[in-house]
Amino acid sequence: MPRIQIHDLADPRLSRYRDLQTEAGRSATGTFVVEGGFCVSKLAQSRLSIRSVVVQQGRHEDVLCQLPDDVSVFEVSASDIRELVGYDFHRGILAEGVRPPAALLKDVSFDAADPPLALAVFGVSLTENLGSMIRSATALGVHRLVIGPRTADPFSRRSIRVSMGTVFEQSVFYVNDTFAELTALATDHNIRVVATTLGPGAIALDQFRRDDRPILLVMGSEPDGVGRDVEAAATDRITIPMKLNTDSLNVSVAAAVFMYGLTK
């Protein structure tokens, strides 16, 4: 594992880490950035590849020893690492990971050893909510994640951090044509597309009856729900009954309740 001290922040090998608060659109590079020792360690233990690491001099030796031998490690000073990323950074280590190939919804499959459940997220733009849902899903053994249009990037720094690196355990699938792809999933692959909704006619979670078909659980945004295309394609609609004039839950809390109910 080569360790290289860098004193010039203009060094092109540091370009992926520069001004991270303005990283919109950088997913096109095919990589993502992870920050903090815990999440970098999770990345090192995952099946995903690491392109490079930036570390503050004298820190995180326990993480560095987990890295593959071919990963370049760039050592910089504490002041330089903060200037490099563009904000007051104290975690001391960052890594550039390689995004897994984008899989399509039609490629999702289930096997008998896993919970017959996948989590689909449509229109949730807050990275914190997405990261929290991913963390709950992984804790419950749900490791198929479907990302719909207008949804936050599961490999954004903040989503990774809130997920505590559990996103690296997920198989991620992407949807482009919501109605057509969900309809095909239900008709061609015999998967129940279960939309979560506050609308009338939805079945209470504790009254929902599973069968031998796998389930795609679809969560939508708090303002707009799952959307018309999802509702039109859904085979089932479920809801969480609430009391004391409570009209809704945070989407990540609701997702955890639904997933627990569908996996127990």
From TrEMBL:
Its EC number is 2.1.1.185. One of its GO terms (molecular function) is RNA binding. Keywords: Methyltransferase, Transferase. InterPro entries: Alpha/beta_knot_MTases, Ribosomal_eL30-like_sf, rRNA_Methyltransferase, SpoU_MeTrfase, tRNA_m1G_MTases_N. GO terms for biological process: methylation; RNA processing. CDD domains: SpoU-like_rRNA-MTase (cd18095). This is 23S rRNA (Guanosine-2'-O-)-methyltransferase RlmB. The lineage of its organism: Bacteria, Pseudomonadati, Planctomycetota, Planctomycetia, Pirellulales.
